[in-house]
Every structure is written in structure tokens, then in C-alpha cells.
Inverse folding.
């Protein structure tokens, strides 16, 4: 209140204009309240009471008291921002992590199994997704494949198939001749048996006649013996009659021997064997029938052999055809589920056996290749737990260190050469099962960062 006389002592004739410099000095001290009070002075020049003069001091005190909490809030927010944005680099500095990391995968190189020409490539459609294993990619055809053995086998089987009907016809002819000769042999045997039976009957009749003559001669000898005493019969006549008796006896004995021999021939004829001096033991018809039977059996064996040969040749032709097809045509398919990484051929191109055709990404075996500092490398060991953090803010994936190659190149057929990670010379390979989740994506080439767990680090 000590300043009131100073505010009220104004020059004569003065109005609001004479008080303006003082008002401006007060407003300069009060900040934003100055323009408001100046406006009020211009609109209401008569209001110069004590309340008007006390308002600037009160506003200054109130403004100072209301700005103090706001300053504390701003200071706290600044400290929080500095703490948050300063902690992240600090945290990264204290973590055991890689310098660079990239998702990698092993390559599968498909080579041509034969010489030939690329005839089709329907699988080279450029589909960016993962293709299932067994999917057809392209075909290699060799029109100049060697088919000499296949043609030779086919020639052999054609010859045997052409000969077989002739052999079957010969068998039929031989069996017909055999039946005819067997009929002739049967007729001959039957006739021979009847002939021997008739001869036996004849011999029996001769034996009866010889027996009668023997009896008659014996009676004559007996009569002559009784008459020789009386002199009616001479001794010469008696000798002749005795000789006739002996001849009749021997004739009868000879007839009986012929009967025995004929009986033997009859028995042999009934058994199929013929005995005699003027022919062999078997007639020619029987011998020819036997020859025809043997010939028919031989031809039958030849047909069976031809059938066996044909069956074997069919198997060989089938095998040779499969071999010929495998040598003249080959279908290239995906051996594993993956994605085409590099195409090294085109339809119509001539290729050689063993020439690389396509390189595929084995997406089922994706890994992370990372390079680390020497300090981090020396703290790692196989089996160490690691976490891969993708650069695209994807979910963090757990993994395991499976290979440590140091400054040497990774001993693996990888799509991305580990040498491209050039910020640090020490390299590690981490297996991350989460990368192989079976989705239609093969994230090879994605970058990120690998954080190694301190619990599994090698103690110095």
C-alpha cells in the first residue's frame, strides 16, 4: 500500500494517457496481464480506484504460486524422458549381443542326373511361397539315350514268340503220329498174340500125332519082338521098327519143346516184348511210336523253355525299359519343402549330367548367422541360449548356439555367405526353431539382433 500515493499523484490534465507508462511497467512485470489492463484502461478511463491499483500486485503473487508446481511437473517429465531414452542405449551396452545378425538357410542344389535338354519347367512359376516337397519343377529329356540292349532283348523275345507256334504245331504232329503208331503197334501185338496162340494149338496137335505114332511104333516093336522067336519076323525088321519107335519118341519130345518155346514167345508178346530170330525184340511200329513220343516230349520241353525265356525276357525288358527311361528322361522335384533361391537353367537348354540346375532354400532348417565382437565370441560356447530379436519389431524368438566359426568362414552351404557380415570378424550360428513354424514364409535375409544369455556364457 506504500505505492498508492505514487499511483494517485498524476499531472494535471492527465488521464489514462499520463498513467500509461506506469501501467506498462507493471504489465511488464506481470506478464500476460498487462495487455488486459491496458485494454480496460482505454475502455473505462474513469475507473482509477484503489482496487484497480491493488490488482497487479495480487496477480503477480498468484502467478508465481501457480507456476511452481508446473515447473516441477516439467522437470519430472524431462527427467523421465532422459531416463527412458538414456536407459535403452545403456541397456544395449550392457547386454551380450551380436553386432549384426541375419536369418539364413542352407541351400539344396538340384543337379541333372542325365545328359539331355530341359523340355519343360512348369514348376518355375516364380511362386514366392514355400513349395511342398515332391513338387514337380522341370523335366530333362535325352532323345539320344542308349537303347541297344533294350532293342536286343525285344528282338530275342520276338524270335521266341515267333518260334513258339511252330513248336506247338510240331508237338501236335508228333502226338498224332505217335497215336497212329501206337494203334499200329497194338494191332501188331494183337495179331502176334493170335499167331502164337494158333502156333501153340498146331504144336499141341503135332504132339498128339507124334504120341500116336510113338504108341504105334511101340506096339509094332512089341509084336515084332514076340514074332522074332518063331522066325516070322527077321531081326532087320525088328531093328527098323525099333528105329521108328525112337524117331516117334524124339518127334514127340521135339514138338513139346517147340510148344514150350512158343509159350515163352506168347508170354513175352503179352508183356509187349517180341522174341524171334527174324526181328528185334520190338517191332518197327512200336519203335517209331516211341521215337515220336520222345520227340513230342522234347518239343514240349522246348516250348516250356521258350515260355520261361519269354517270361525272363519280359522281366528284363521291363527293367531295361525302366533303366532306359531313367537314362533318357528325368523329372526334377523338390526334395524338401522350400523356396527357389536361384535358377541356373532355362527350357530348351542342353545340360550335362551333374550340372547344377536350381538352388533351393531349405526353409525347414532356417538359422541365424551373427557376427560378434571378440569379447562376446570368447564368452560363448555350443549350446548357449540366445534370443533373436527381428529388426521389424517382430516377436523375440528363443534359440541355441549350434556353431562357432570365429574368423573362419561358416562350414555350411548357406544362402547368405557369412563373410558379408563384415563389421566384426567373429561369427556364430544360432538355431532358432521359431523360424521354422510351418507358415508359408521363408524369412531368409531378414535382419535383427541376437542377445546371448549371460547364464550360459563361458566363465573366464
Amino acid at each position: 500500500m506504500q505505492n498508492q500515493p505514487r499511483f494517485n499523484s498524476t499531472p494535471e490534465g492527465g488521464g489514462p494517457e499520463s498513467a500509461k507508462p506506469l501501467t506498462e511497467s507493471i504489465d511488464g512485470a506481470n506478464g500476460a496481464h498487462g495487455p488486459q489492463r491496458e485494454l480496460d484502461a482505454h475502455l473505462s478511463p474513469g475507473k482509477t480506484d484503489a482496487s484497480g491499483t491493488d490488482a497487479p500486485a495480487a496477480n503477480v503473487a498468484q502467478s508465481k504460486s501457480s507456476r511452481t508446481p508446473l515447473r516441477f511437473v516439467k522437470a519430472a517429465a524431462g527427467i523421465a524422458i532422459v531416463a527412458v531414452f538414456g536407459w535403452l542405449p545403456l541397456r544395449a551396452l550392457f547386454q551380450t549381443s551380436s553386432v549384426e545378425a541375419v536369418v539364413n538357410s542352407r541351400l539344396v542344389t538340384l543337379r541333372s542326373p542325365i545328359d539331355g535338354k530341359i523340355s519343360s519347367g512348369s514348376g518355375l512359376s516364380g511362386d514366392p511361397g514355400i513349395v511342398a516337397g515332391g513338387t514337380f519343377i522341370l523335366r530333362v529329356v535325352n532323345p539320344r539315350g542308349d537303347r541297344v540292349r533294350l532293342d536286343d532283348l525285344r528282338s530275342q523275345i520276338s524270335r521266341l514268340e515267333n518260334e513258339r507256334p511252330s513248336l506247338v504245331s510240331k508237338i501236335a504232329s508228333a502226338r498224332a503220329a505217335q497215336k497212329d503208331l501206337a494203334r499200329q503197334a497194338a494191332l501188331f501185338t494183337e495179331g502176334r498174340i493170335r499167331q502164337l496162340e494158333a502156333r501153340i494149338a498146331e504144336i499141341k496137335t503135332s504132339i498128339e500125332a507124334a504120341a500116336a505114332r510113338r504108341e504105334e511104333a511101340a506096339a509094332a516093336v512089341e509084336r515084332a519082338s514076340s514074332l522074332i522067336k518063331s522066325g516070322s519076323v527077321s531081326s532087320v525088321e525088328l531093328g527098323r521098327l525099333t528105329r521108328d519107335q525112337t524117331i516117334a519118341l524124339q518127334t514127340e519130345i521135339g514138338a513139346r519143346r517147340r510148344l514150350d518155346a512158343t509159350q515163352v514167345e506168347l508170354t513175352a508178346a503179352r508183356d509187349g516184348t517180341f522174341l524171334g530170330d527174324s526181328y528185334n525184340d520190338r517191332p518197327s511200329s512200336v519203335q517209331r511210336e516211341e521215337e515220336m513220343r520222345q520227340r513230342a516230349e522234347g518239343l514240349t520241353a522246348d516250348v516250356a523253355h521258350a515260355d520261361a525265356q519269354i517270361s525272363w525276357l519280359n522281366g528284363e525288358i521291363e527293367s531295361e525299359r525302366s533303366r532306359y527311361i531313367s537314362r533318357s528322361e528325368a523329372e526334377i522335384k523338390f526334395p524338401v519343402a522350400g523356396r527357389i533361391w536361384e535358377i541356373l537353367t532355362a527350357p530348351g537348354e542342353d545340360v550335362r549330367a551333374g550340372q547344377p540346375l536350381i538352388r533351393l532354400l531349405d526353409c525347414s532348417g532356417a538359422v541365424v548367422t551373427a557376427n560378434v565382437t571378440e569379447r562376446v565370441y570368447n564368452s560363448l560356447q555350443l549350446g548357449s541360449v540366445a534370443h533373436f530379436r527381428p529388426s521389424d519389431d517382430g516377436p523375440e524368438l528363443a534359440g541355441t548356439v549350434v556353431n562357432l566359426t570365429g574368423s573362419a568362414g561358416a562350414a555350411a552351404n548357406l544362402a547368405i555367405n557369412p563373410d558379408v557380415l563384415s563389421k566384426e570378424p567373429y561369427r556364430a550360428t544360432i538355431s532358432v526353431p521359431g523360424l521354422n513354424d510351418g507358415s508359408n514364409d521363408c524369412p531368409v535375409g531378414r535382419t535383427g539382433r541376437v542377445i546371448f544369455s549371460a547364464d550360459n556364457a563361458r566363465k573366464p
About this structure: The chain is about 50% helix and 15% strand. Helices lie at 4-8, 20-30, 33-43, 50-94, 148-227, 235-270, 284-328, 374-379. The first helix runs from residue 4 to 8. The two ends are 78 Å apart (CA to CA).
